[in-house]
Amino acid sequence: MQNQIQARLNQLKSEFEKGQAKLQDLQQQQTHLHETLLRIGGAIQVLTELLEKESSKSESTVTPTESAHNKT
After folding, report:
1. H or E element: which one contains 68?
2. Among the residues of 1-72, which ranges form H helices?
3. 28-66: b or e for each residue (b if 16 or more CB lie within 10 Å)?
4. How far is residue 35's CA from residue 29's CA, in Å, rounded to a whole number?
5. Nearest-5° Cα angle at 46, 40 to 49
6. Residues 3-34: pLDDT tens digits?
7. Separation between Cα atoms, residue 47 and residue 54, nearest integer Å
8. Sign of CA dihedral 14, 16, 17, 22
9. How many CA atoms lie within 13 A of 23 on its CB side?
10. What is the pLDDT, as a whole number, of residue 68?
């Protein structure tokens, strides 16, 4: 009986260690994914601001003749 208990204890310890290793791997993946999403979010913000800047720049450079044609 004692041998069975010891064998089961060893099995559980092994499973526990594998679980801890897997958890650590998943936490590293989560950190990497979070950093990637932050970079993508930053890139989206920069590109959005560039588009807005270009859009407002083109709206403010309308020539008087273009303005007159748009009013009619």
Report:
1. helix 64-71
2. 2-60, 64-71
3. eeeeeeeeeeeeeeeeeeeeeeeeeeeeeeeeeeeeeee
4. 10
5. 140
6. 999 999 999 999 999 999 999 999 999 999 99
7. 10
8. positive
9. 6
10. 56
Structure tokens at 59: 């709206």
Which tokens go with 22? 């897997």
Token readout for 50 is 């560039």
Length of the chain: 72
**How far is residue 52's CA from residue 58's CA, in Å, rounded to a whole number?**
10
CA 67 – CA 59 distance, rounded (Å): 11
